[in-house]
Design brief:
It is built from 16 helices and 14 strands. α1 runs antiparallel to α2. It folds into 2 domains: 203 residues, Rossmann fold (3-Layer(aba) Sandwich), CATH 3.40.50; 146 residues, Rossmann fold, CATH 3.40.50.1980. The strands form 3 sheets. A 6-stranded mixed sheet has the order 1-11-10-9-12-13, sandwiched between helices. The chain is of the alpha/beta class. The radius of gyration is 27 Å and the shape is globular.
Length: 437
């Protein structure tokens, strides 16, 4: 039975709902036709940003910006990036190239080849999300991507120095102060001053997500991220205060963040609701967090933990936090989640900011079919084959011809026939006497 969740927070007026797909299409079409001039126009329109020196930051400008960053922030960026790098490198180390001999003289292999050029979008409209620089840029560089173009918007007309520092330290080859659809379209299509990228990664608002969706096919993308999601599975021994704090920690991402608690304890559920109502008034981000909680918050009471895990799998949430006596049970009990956070010592915010796993994760039930951004997204797993034994090639030719003719592919069959003719001496009516014997 659901528990009610009515925090007394008013919903702010965000104005009439925009026709996001049409707006995005118009911007993309304009940039496709007019390049830098269109990019400049939309930067002025959407971000009030028109730098005289252009959108790209020179190395001298980057150095100047970084010199203004608090040394403690620089130190923290280094530590966080070391964590992200270590985990991404471990992922890459488990992706091995290989070659096997299927039968004598028949060699098949696989290589993991880095994408040549990646565009990384680092959001910054509401918050300076420097952590996204670690997740998108650094992971691409660990994968071996030789060219990473990184874009982030100005914030209220100002350069986000901390984010620029994170982008540079993550290994970005080119940094642009450019945001929104215009940034994504410029990286995907190329302009007079921005080289075209083969792949774009990074989270963003609804307009950024729609731009990635419309441009997919021209370029590859990591995934289509929606609003941040958090789901907590808690048993009767969970701390309701911790449940409340952790739900609000994600609800502050925006006004449309689902924050869900599934518990087998009515007491935990009701106390969590009460704690949230008490905590919200003193939270600096209460307008966003309160709106999300009012409109998308849920506390659901279930019979037992197996029921909780089963229901959580139906939600397939981006972040799933397990606050139970035996949290590692979730590793076998659950299948659908962006990332799991096991136990009271492990909060979702660790994954967002510093622990080392990637925070670009599937939302809107996409966790039912995909995981999040990781080093493998920047690698093309490509196969190759070589047949060095004549007899093996001839036998494959016969097998290929029979298989192809079963599908009415005569041209395919003749490629097999030719090898069987050349290497095994087989006779085929279609092969002229003058052809190789």
């Amino acid at each position: 039975m659901p528990l009610t969740v009515p925090p007394p927070i008013l919903t702010p007026d965000f104005g009439p709902k925009a026709d996001v797909p049409s707006i995005v299409k118009g911007v993309i079409d304009d940039i496709r036709q007019n390049g830098d001039a269109a990019v400049k126009k939309y930067s002025q329109q959407f971000d009030k940003w028109d730098p005289k020196a252009g959108f790209k930051l020179s190395q001298e400008k980057v150095d100047e910006i970084i010199s203004q960053v608090d040394p403690q922030i620089i130190s923290d960026i280094k530590e966080v990036q070391a964590n992200v790098r270590k985990f991404a490198q471990a992922q890459k180390d488990h992706l091995q190239d290989f070659e096997i001999e299927m039968s004598p003289g028949v060699h098949l292999g696989q290589r993991n080849i880095p994408i040549a050029s990646v565009g990384a979008y680092i959001p910054g409209g509401r918050y300076p999300l420097l952590a996204s620089a670690h997740m998108t840029i650094l992971t691409a560089k660990v994968a071996g991507v030789p060219n990473v173009v990184a874009c982030t918007p100005p914030i209220a007309g100002q350069i986000p120095a901390n984010t620029v520092a994170a982008m540079h330290m993550a290994g970005a080859d080119h940094i642009y102060l450019l945001g929104g659809v215009q940034a994504v379209a410029a990286m995907a299509l190329g302009t007079e001053t921005i080289d075209v990228c083969d792949f774009i990664a990074g989270p963003g608002n609804a307009f950024v997500a729609e731009a990635k969706k419309q441009l997919f096919g021209n370029i590859g993308i990591d995934l289509l991220a929606g609003p941040t999601e958090v789901l907590i599975v808690a048993d009767e021994k969970a701390d309701p205060y911790m449940c409340a704090v952790d739900l609000l920690s994600q609800a502050e991402h925006g006004p449309d963040t689902p924050a869900v608690l599934i518990t087998n304890s009515e007491q935990v559920g009701r106390e969590t609701i009460q704690h949230i109502e008490n905590l919200l008034p003193n939270l600096s981000t209460r307008e966003l967090a309160g709106t999300s909680w009012k409109n998308f918050g849920e506390v659901i009471l279930v019979r037992d933990l197996p029921s909780a895990y089963a229901l959580a799998d139906q939600y397939a949430s981006e972040h799933v936090q397990i606050l139970t006596e035996n949290p590692r049970e979730a590793l076998t009990a659950m299948k659908n989640y962006g990332s799991l956070f096991l136990g009271a010592n492990t909060c979702v915010s660790y994954g967002d900011k510093c622990i080392g796993t990637n925070h670009v994760l599937p939302t809107r039930k996409a966790a039912k079919y995909t995981g999040g951004l990781w080093v493998g997204k920047y690698l093309k797993t490509c196969t190759y084959q070589e047949v060095t034994d004549d007899q093996a090639s001839g036998r494959l030719g016969e097998l290929c011809a029979r298989s192809a003719r079963a599908e009415n592919f005569e041209g395919h069959a003749r490629s097999g026939d030719l090898r069987a003719h050349m290497l095994l001496g087989r006779k085929y009516d279609w092969i002229e006497e003058s052809k190789p014997s």
